[in-house]
């Protein structure tokens, strides 16, 4: 009875607040979350996790002690899939991050992407930006990844100490970001010998992710892998 009531109640709620696909705006059916099945199938996946020396890994070669890196889908001009990032960052859709994190992790897990990784670190926002937005969208992506992979999430051991403006509207050259020394690791000793997975929402020049990885520089035995939800193309 209680269950019937619940279903009735949610159907009633959805009648007035219908859940729609974030990409194509069609009504979601029972069992779909945030993204409809068709858009999920059509998502422009990179497939980079199956490719050795993939373009994302090449962005970090020689800069950090990289083990592996990939991005889930292409962030293309004019593509409706950009809405995922937009809603996640500016639309308050935190749960979308977790759902996307789960989708991504489920596909990567099958290919052994999470092998030997000890801890997941989402790239932090500056406290001022965190206050303004109310949440760190990347942390929500990381939560979904942690749920599926079973790897613990650590959202407090690295902090962002310098404020940098949103870089989205600048050209790729202007974006050669001033990110040196932006991040600091709180207890470096804890990370000794660990394989860290740094997660970010979208990869453009790689400067922010590299700066985040640089914060672990000098800690003996640290290895780094990188995972982003999208990569600019
Ligand atoms: Zn859709």
Structural account:
By secondary structure, the chain is an alpha/beta fold. Helix 5 packs parallel to helix 7 (137-149). It contains eight helices and six strands, in the order αααβααβααβββαβ. It has a four-stranded parallel sheet, with helices on both faces. A two-stranded antiparallel ribbon has the order 3-4. The mean pLDDT is 90. Helix 8 (207-214) links the parallel strand 5 and strand 6 (223-232). The protein folds into two domains: 1-42, no CATH class; 44-232, Rossmann fold (3-Layer(aba) Sandwich). The radius of gyration is 18 Å and the shape is globular. The structure holds zinc ion. Residues 21, 23-24, 26, 36, 38-39 line the site of zinc ion.
């Amino acid at each position: 009875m209680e269950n019937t009531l619940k279903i009735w109640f949610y159907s009633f709620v959805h009648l007035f607040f219908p859940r729609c696909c974030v990409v194509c705006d069609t009504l979601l059916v029972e069992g779909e979350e945030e993204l409809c099945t068709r858009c999920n199938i059509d998502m422009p996946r990179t497939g980079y996790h199956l490719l050795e020396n993939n373009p994302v890994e090449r962005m970090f070669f020689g800069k950090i002690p990289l083990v592996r890196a990939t991005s889930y889908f292409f962030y293309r001009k004019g593509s409706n899939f950009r809405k995922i990032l937009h809603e996640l960052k500016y639309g308050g859709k935190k749960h979308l991050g977790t759902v996307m994190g789960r989708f991504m992790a489920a596909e990567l897990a099958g290919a052994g992407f999470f092998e030997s990784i000890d801890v997941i670190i989402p790239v932090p926002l500056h406290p001022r930006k965190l206050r303004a937005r109310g949440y760190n969208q990347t942390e929500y992506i990381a939560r979904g990844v942690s749920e599926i992979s079973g790897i613990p999430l650590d959202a407090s051991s690295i902090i962002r100490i310098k404020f940098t403006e949103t870089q989205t509207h600048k050209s790729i050259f202007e974006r050669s970001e001033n990110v040196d020394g932006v991040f600091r690791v709180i207890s470096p000793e804890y990370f000794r010998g660990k394989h860290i997975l740094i997660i970010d929402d979208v990869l453009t020049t790689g400067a922010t992710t590299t700066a985040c990885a640089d914060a672990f520089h000098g800690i003996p035995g640290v290895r780094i892998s990188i995972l982003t939800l999208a990569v600019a193309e």
